[in-house]
Amino acid sequence: MGSHTGSDELDFDLEALKQKYAFERDRRIRTDADKQYVPSAEDFAGYYESDPWTERAERDPIVEQIDLIILGGGFAGLMAGARAREQGVEDFRIVDMGGDFGGTWYWNRYPGIHCDIESYCYLPLLDELGYVPKQKYSTGEEIFEHCQRIGKHFGLYEKALFQTEIDSLSWDEDSERWNVHTDRGDRIAARHVIVALGRYNRPKLPGIAGISKYQGATFHTARWDYDYTGGDMHGGMDKLADKRVAVIGTGATSIQVIPKLAEDAGHVVVFQRTPSVVAPRGNHETDPQWAKELKPGWARERRENYDSVVSYREPNDIIKDWWTELPSRVVPQLRPDMTLETVERIREIEDYRINNELRAHVDEVVHDPETAAKLKAWYRWNCKRPTFHDGYLETFNRDNVTLVDVSSSKGVERITEKGVVADGVEYPVDAIVFASGFEITSEMRRRYGIETFTGRDGESLYDHWQDGVKTLHGFATNNFPNLYFIGFYQGGVSANVTSMFDDQATHIAYLIGEAQRRGIKALEVSAEAQDAYGNWMAENAVDRSDFYAECTPGYYNNEGAKMVRGQSHIGEVYKGSINEFNDMLAQWRERGDLAGFTTSE
Question: Does the pLDDT at position 4 exceed 50?
Fold first, then answer.
């Protein structure tokens, strides 16, 4: 971590930096915003559903009545299943389109994959399973294995319907159950539904002209083709030794993929519209003695420390990485009598200092000044997801790596039968790797992949939330009884999403458990409670729309489109720490009156 001086001792030209940031933002903004990622070619219609990891297994349709169905088998679904069992709920199913548990970590198996949040915080249920991760930042392989470990420990495999997608969900007034239909012909009547689909399950392809005409190999990082490349998640892609490979995208995935490709491919051509902020990761093996001395509850303590630090609530940072670096610089300077304007100025200045240091780091590492200039990020910390790697920048010192900056044309110009065209120059390649992430900002119906989703009186959830999410505590909504949501909606939020999922699953499992214990058939948020909570959130939510408006385009700000409050990728966010929000929920549960819900017995 870098050293710094007080915020009043400016060692840089603040206004000049602001102007530079604004210039770099403006020249990247496109009028099509997030629609640039919707592929125009029907040739890719089946691409999203393809599964390179598990051969499809045929089975007979299931017709049954159950207490609970959980949609999604990633960490959110795993937490929901584990916490439901703790509440005594046994009659349930978990449905997922993949061939195993894992969600993002089932689909993402590209070479070099690691988590960018430290594993001691990110991997859930470590205390419950008696497991300590092997490294500070786990490999994708270890994370996927941990998902399987959770599934086995809590007996969730016997509840799973893999390789299955939901066609429709509709509330039946007479039976007070949800009728769930799947693409396997299943007809399931479930008393309760938990939507744990997550945001990171549908690969996103850029709508580049000519994308369907390319005659070489092409694949998305979430559908890696090891038959073509050889090797595995650790590298060793021997089949690429004589191949020229293009990579489109330079976000969190590319930061990890590109160094591995550079080790094995004949040549790698990287097409970059906007450089990522890249900080050293400093990964290391877990110290066995440290692991041996851990006390029960250590993982919860660690993740709560993380959330308190990044919420600017805690001066004692035990994580000490680049996620906590900015608040760890800001918090010691804060005083109780400071105005919000003063606090924001301190945070802004330290933000600029950190990025100045990281741009200087690029100059130290990258030998060619022209290449180094292209790799420098000119935007605020958290305008885009920061990235961390111990070898990405060094990769551009290799003779077999070419960096092509496409910022002036706001992206790749087109794709031909033989290669990629940028600024009028065609780059012939044998393969194109799309490292363009997952659909996060596309409309809800598309992300969920559920065409029919109706509550009372046949009202569509998509229409119900057309003008914004309406909930109680972010988990349930009026007119949709016994329906619960895990994810980014309206409430406490953490960048350490697995921690957030676990806390949400704990609360939702309590609701379902109480409904069963009290003989409640339908548990529904009242319109009055929903409105009251919406008003409370309006007074207690973070409004980052002005901040994101100044950011370079990315999925954090709907690719630079004009945003309104609550429209960000993380929904409407409570202004305090997620720990404070969780304390509020715990007090609500302790009262035991199910305040805000109506019941039908």
Answer: no
Between 581 and 385, the higher pLDDT residue: 581
3-state secondary structure of 484: strand
The reported pLDDT for the residue numbered 452 is 93
The lowest-confidence range among 32-46, 337-351, 384-398, 529-543 is 32-46
Domain 63-202+441-600 class, CATH top level: alpha beta
Residue 204: per-residue pLDDT: 72
H runs (alpha helix) in 519-549? 527-540, 545-549
Give φ, ψ of 369 to 5 degrees.
-60, -35
Report the distance separating Cα 469 and Cα 393, nearest Å: 40
Q: Is the predicted pLDDT of residue 7 greater than 50, yes or no?
A: no
Q: What is the dihedral of CA 79, 82, 86, 92, to 10 degrees?
A: 110
* Residue 558 in this model has a pLDDT that exceeds 90: no
Q: Report the candidate in 279, 245, 281 with the shortest Cα–Cα distance to residue 261.
A: 245
Helix 578-591 crosses helix 497-518 at what angle (to 10 degrees)? 10
Q: Which residues pair with 388 in a beta bridge?
A: 279
Q: How far apart are CA 248 and CA 431, in angstroms?
A: 11
Half-sphere exposure of 112 (CA within 13 A, CB side): 20
Q: How far apart are CA 354 and CA 379, in angstroms?
A: 11
What average pLDDT does the structure give for the chain?
A: 91
Exposure on the CB side of residue 520, measured as CA atoms within 13 A? 19
- Residue extents of the structural domains in the chain: 63-202+441-600, 203-276+384-434
CA atoms 344, 553, 274, 490: torsion sign: positive
Looking at the whole model, is its pTM more than 0.85? yes
pLDDT value at position 44? Answer: 57
Task: For residue 66, list its beta bridge partners.
Answer: 190
Q: Hey, which bits of 355-451 come out as E strands? A: 387-388, 401-405, 414-415, 419-422, 425-428, 431-434
566: left (phi over 0), alpha (psi -120 to 50) or beta: left
Mean pLDDT calculated for residue range 30-54: 63
The neighbouring-strand residues paired with 278 are 387
Could you tell me how many residues make up the chain?
601
Give yes or no on whether 63-202+441-600 and 203-276+384-434 have one common fold.
Answer: yes
Amino acid letter, residue 340: L
Amino acid identity for residue 222 in this structure = A
Other beta carbons less than 10 A from residue 300's beta carbon: 15
Q: Which pLDDT tens digit goes with each residue over 242-297?
A: 999 999 999 999 999 999 999 999 999 999 999 999 999 999 999 999 999 999 99
* Distance from C-alpha of 168 to C-alpha of 94, rounded to nearest angstrom: 15
pLDDT, residue 2, reads 47
CB 347 within 8 A of CB 534: no
d(CA 217, CA 233): 19
At position 187, the amino acid (one-letter code) is R
CA distances to 332, 338, 571 from 542, rounded to whole Å, are 22, 18, 10
Q: What are phi and psi of 181, to 5 degrees?
A: -115, 140
| Per-residue pLDDT at 306 exceeds 60 | yes
Homologous superfamily assigned to 203-276+384-434:
FAD/NAD(P)-binding domain (3.50.50.60)
Q: DSSP code of 331?
A: G
